[in-house]
Specification:
The chain is α+β, with helices and mostly antiparallel strands. It is built from two helices and ten strands, in the order βββββαβαββββ. The strands form two sheets. It has a five-stranded mixed sheet with strand order 1-3-8-9-10, with no helix packed on it. Strands 2-5-4-6-7 form a five-stranded mixed sheet, with helices on one face.
Length: 160
């Protein structure tokens, strides 16, 4: 089985028996989409919540709102049906200790909120998540069965 690495502010798709991984999700969010019928999986590593708030926003994979649109489009090209898609997310950690009243510093929370909002607007059910806390995560998404492995130092390995 081929493991495809998805970089920061990047996305990719694969079909079974392939798998996708992204490393070092801190405040970033890994958005995993899966079509259980076509066995097509997609993974995005988003860094920021909203492309409209940033001037240089040409990288669609960098933002929750635009990454989801691109990811669905790429998955449909591989045979996925948007009506069958299910989502799982991980990340959105608060990596640094500070007074969290400053909205701009709550990047992890804002990424999670924006991701959930985008999924809801596109009608994709969120069936699993592990977000928040103060530790980074590495994730693996398996196209064969939609397994989403989450690894974190000192936290063990979980599957959602």
């Amino acid at each position: 089985m081929k493991m495809i690495v998805v970089g920061m502010a990047d996305l990719n798709v694969t079909a079974a028996p392939g798998a996708l991984t992204t490393l070092g999700l801190g405040s970033c969010v890994g958005i995993a989409l899966y079509d259980p019928i076509s066995k097509v999986a997609g993974l995005a590593h988003i860094m920021l919540p909203d492309s409209k708030a940033i001037q240089n926003n040409s990288n669609k994979a960098k933002f929750a709102d635009t990454a989801l649109v691109q990811l669905i489009s790429d998955m449909e090209k591989k045979g996925a049906n948007r009506r069958h898609l299910k989502a799982k997310i991980a990340g959105g950690a608060q990596m640094f200790a500070f007074n969290a009243t400053n909205e701009n510093l709550r990047v992890g929370d804002r990424n999670v909120e924006a991701t959930k909002r985008a999924l809801m607007m596109m009608g994709i059910p969120l069936i699993g998540e592990e977000t928040g806390a103060s530790f980074g995560r590495t994730v693996e998404l398996y196209a064969e069965d939609g397994r989403f492995l989450i690894k974190a130092i000192g936290q063990g390995i979980r599957t959602i």
